[in-house]
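request received
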Amino acid sequence: MEGALDLFLQQLLNGLTIGMIYALIALGYTMVYGVIQLINFAHGEVFMAGAYLAMTALVFFGTLATPLPVWAVFAAVVLFSVVGSAALGAGIERVAYKPLRGSPKLTALITSIGMSFFLQNAVMLVYGAKEQSVPDIFPAGRLEAGPLSVSLLQGVIFAVSIGLMVLLTRFVRHTRTGKALRALAQDPDTARLMGVSVDSMIRLTFVLGSALAAVGGALFGMYYGSVNFHDGYLAGLKAFTAAVFGGIGSIPGAMIGGILLGIFEAMGAGYLSAEWKDVFAFVLLGAVLIFKPSGLLGENVPEKV
Amino acid sequence: MNRLPLSAQVAAVLLPFAFLPLVDRNAYHLDLMTNVGIYVLLAMGLNVVVGFTGLLNLGYAAFFAIGAYTYALLNLHTGCPFWWGLPAAGITAMLFGFVIGLPSIRVRGDYLAITTLGFGEIVRITFNNLDDWTGGPNGLLGIDRPVFFGFRFSVNATPYYYLTLALVAVTAYLLFRMIRSKFGRALVAIREDELAAGCMGIPALQVKLVSFGISAFIAGIAGAVFAAKQTIVTPDSFDFVLSVLILAMVVLGGMGNIWGVALGALVLGVLPELLRGFAAYRMLLFGLIMILMMIFRPQGMLGGQLIRRELGRRPKEGSDGAA
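response:
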């Protein structure tokens, strides 16, 4: 009985860890969808680019003659990855999506698929097709709390992810810029009339979403110890599933959706079959889209006529 | 040329290709052109859903896989000959097409795209994991080659080349007939404005389902030819990359333009071979083509008057917002 409970708790913790990362990526999907109704297929690649940037920085810090303290390295690595990915996200928006404002949804969706392929292969050409290992910087100690035990890195993932989600929520709810973002999501034309600069708000959405995905990518790389150029595809798809599950366009929805999806997946892998792990996410996605497209927290918006 | 009967037009376009094996005896070239023929079938099939009906299918490789595995399994378990396996593969893929079309009742365009993507992944992972049935990641080997009135197909690609050419001709002819029929106009009407089409009495749901079925049928046929040509099928031949590659062909050629998508398949099928030294840049190029075409020439190389209104840039208007 003891063992069964332990397995359950362990899978729960594993699920929460990966769920936090899904949630960080899902926020980018949901925010972009909220303002321009685009499924930004290239978002998974921004996450992957974040993981590669973090890996590159970690390798660089590993070569320093005098090692810096772990926390300084961690902060510098995440910052590097965030800045690089945010610039990438803003660049993608400027080059590929801005010229397509006002054209049908399918046009922009196809463009984003093209962008995703382009970025994936660009990274593959730069870093090679082989998996790259990510240096481990955290000491091996574990944090114990009663029957629960998490690795130091898992603790960091929880703390950073929850901290960012709280910050984002406060930003969107309580600042002027956040209000402008919400206005834009609600009604772009009225927002424009009220003096909201639509272009810069859309750019900001991409920057924020990409920054969060980059943090997710950095944590993902450290957690699994390696990165691969097609990691972004699967993780991106799952994060999109999470965003839809939580209700696309809803920020708390993306957080809850990501965490729940992580837990479902870990439980499915632990109790049913690890081989079919990826199928659970896709079946969930199909079921939500067909039976409750508005998701857990999304509003039921009728098709505009 | 438009005054010629349709069958003569199709023959006129494809006739030069019939002479290729006589002019070019390079076995490698013919093998490549046979694969291109399979791509042309796939592009024409995907075009039915994406180009005519305006629904994005991102899991099209799944139907190709279902066709290939249907013929492979039938042949290996029952010794079913190719000529029976071919329609069986098409029909099986079509049945799955109806099932996958079902969500289109409820979900909007962009959501449907993701649903089909999920379906494509589920199919691939299923073929990969059902080891007892499908041989798992190693796939199925030893699939019989076709026998045509006593003539046995061999490693030589020439008979396969003529087989795919004939299938392309028949498919093109039937698709032209279809798009000029009442049913074809119904597809385009749904693409342009589903609500208005419904008001005009078009049963949008049935029409969309049938278009999914036709599209899947063509992929199933192509799958059977592929399985008979390779004599081996493995799940990794049917990944998301293939679905996107076919989509890129359709986008490049011009969504909704039958000869256009065939040209797109020809270009994207042959181009990587011409740029041998740049093999690594192949997928990069496909991605770039999709971005550039959508921004600068959404109607594709050959374009299509039909599609222009839907894909062309609209002036900023009303409550449609930025998308």
